[in-house]
Design goal:
Strand content: 15-25%
Bound molecules: adenosine-5'-diphosphate, guanosine-5'-monophosphate
Order of helices and strands: EHEEEHEEHEHEHHEHH
Largest sheet: 5 strands, parallel
Distance between the termini: 17 Å
Helix content: 40-55%
Strand order of the largest sheet: 2-7-1-8-9
Length: about 200
């Protein structure tokens, strides 16, 4: 039987909607999924670790990676670069491992262009007021940064129509559960299971 290639899963959503929180919940049940650690020029927040949350690099190093074509996609977001390593993703997918990216909307559009089979999921907050509360409660950004992130959130939510699935992050466990259901359904797509039919009917 053919070994399947890994699934490329993209999760986007406005800053503070709860992407990291939902991803932790998801990965605690789905330990077989590889979380892609992005490269960024932003400074680490309190509690963030290099190589775990992000690979923190200088602007000069990031621009070298762009020039050497090392990134699957990259984007500038609120004054900083963020990008995904092409080599690491390709290695995991080739080994049949599912890979999860937490990236913003411009990067997600580039991934869909380069990898049309990727599954794009958009996480939305129950309301803009709740998003503002979460950004304030997280207590990691200055008020002007929060304002810029809220403004950007409105633009980003408009882009959600280009995604394959929308998940509301009301309760973390339910949101992670819905993502697991989406992944289970994706595994059963006829186009992805064609080898199962071929093993029964042959290659006629
Ligand atoms: P993101 O990764 O999207 O920027 P975080 O995961 O850092 O967002 O979450 C932002 C804040 O919102 C954190 O303080 C987190 O604990 C909180 N949070 C996340 N999901 C929920 C939820 N479903 N209900 C209430 N608070 C949440
Ligand atoms: P934060 O600074 O809150 O960690 O992330 C800001 C935004 O950058 C989030 O929307 C997050 O999804 C996005 N992001 C994180 N890593 C990448 C990446 O590798 N590429 C792109 N395009 N966006 C990323």
């Amino acid at each position: 039987m053919n070994k399947r290639r890994g699934e490329l899963i993209v999760l986007s959503g406005p800053s503070g909607v709860g992407k990291s929180t939902v991803i932790s919940e998801l990965l605690s049940s789905r330990r077989d999924i590889h979380f892609s650690v992005s490269f960024t020029t932003r400074l680490p927040r309190v509690g963030e670790e290099n190589g775990v949350n992000y690979n923190f690099v200088s602007r000069q190093e990031f621009e070298r990676m762009i020039a050497d074509d090392e990134l699957l996609e990259y984007a500038e977001y609120v004054g900083n670069y963020y990008g995904t390593s092409l080599k690491i993703i390709r290695e995991q997918l080739d080994q049949g491992v599912d890979v999860l990216l937490d990236i913003e909307v411009q990067g997600a559009a580039k991934v869909k262009e380069r990898c049309p089979e990727a599954v794009l999921i958009f996480l939305i907050p129950p309301s803009i007021e709740e998003l503002s509360r979460r950004l304030h409660r997280r207590n990691t950004d200055a008020e002007d940064v929060i304002e810029r992130r809220l403004e950007k959130a409105r633009q980003e939510c408009r882009e959600s129509i280009h995604y394959d699935y929308l998940v509301v992050n009301d309760a973390v466990v339910s949101a992670a559960g819905e993502i697991m259901s989406i992944l289970a359904a994706e595994q059963c797509r006829t186009s992805k299971c064609i080898h199962l039919t071929q093993s029964i009917v042959g290659n006629e």
